[in-house]
Amino acid sequence: MSAFLRFIVLFLALFSASSLPELRNVDFSVATRPLALQYTLQRHGRSALRSLKTTDFWLFGTQPTPSNIAQAIWLLICGHGDAAHEVLLGVNETNLHVAEYAATHPTSWHQDHPLCDVNDLVHSLIHRCEGACIGEGGHSGFENAKYWAAGGPKEYTNFGYAASSVHLIHQTLLQWSSVHTPEIIADVVSTHSARRHSILASKGQRRHVVVAPGCWDPFAFIDFCSTAEQLGSVEQEQLRSLQEFELRLLLRYALLEQRDCDVEMLLSGEEQQ
Ligand SMILES: *[C@@H]1O[C@H](CO)[C@@H](O)[C@H](O)[C@H]1NC(C)=O
Question: For the chain, where are the E strands, in sequence order?
Answer without folding.
Answer: 158-159, 195-200, 206-211
